[in-house]
Amino acid sequence: MKIVIPEHKKLVFEMTMPIRWGDMDSMGHVNNATYFRYLETARIDWLHTINAVPDPKKEGIVIINAFCNFYKQLEYPGDVRLKMYTSDPARTTFETWGTMERVDQPGVIYAAGGATTIWVDFPKQKAIDLPDWMRKIVTP
Fold first, then answer.
1. pLDDT tens-digit profile of 54-75?
2. Domain segments of the chain: what residues?
3. Residue 6 in contact with residue 95, Cβ under 8 Å?
4. In this structure, are strands 109-121 and 59-70 parallel, antiparallel, or unpaired?
5. N or C: which end of the chain has fewer CB within 10 A?
């Protein structure tokens, strides 16, 4: 199944990672929970590239909702290409989501998922306004 990315989303990051033998479950395909780990890895690696890794002594993003839709089974061996998108910045939140495809089958989406993120002042444990610099990055 091929998924069309809506135009109001912004591609902000791409990465490739190996499908590891240990990612598989007893059914011979990548375990469902591992897809969330793939999405998390892409999100954190993207945050590193924009110098926005959450700092417990300062501020950053927290995930408040996450989902993943599974279209085809990923299996070992192979490499998965993750594409990370952002959209819908609001006062304190924005959406992140990603697609997963095998490198040897470009354009065929195996899974797509995402998360609603909220910008937080960690010491105060309180949502705060999304900084202008981050709003510019995540706005399509």
1. 999 999 999 999 999 999 999 9
2. 10-138
3. no
4. antiparallel
5. N
**Residues 97, 84: Cα–Cα separation, whole Å:** 6
**Residue with the two structure tokens 């927290």:** 62
Give the residue from 107, 111, 19, 103 showing the smallest Cα distance to 67. Answer: 111
Helix (H, G, I), strand (E, B) or coil at 97: strand
Weakest mean pLDDT among 4-18, 97-111, 115-129: 4-18
DSSP structure string for 8-60:
T-EEEEEEEEEPPGGGB-TTSSB-HHHHHHHHHHHHHHHHHHTT----TTSEE
Specify the CATH superfamily of domain 10-138: Hotdog Thioesterase (3.10.129.10)
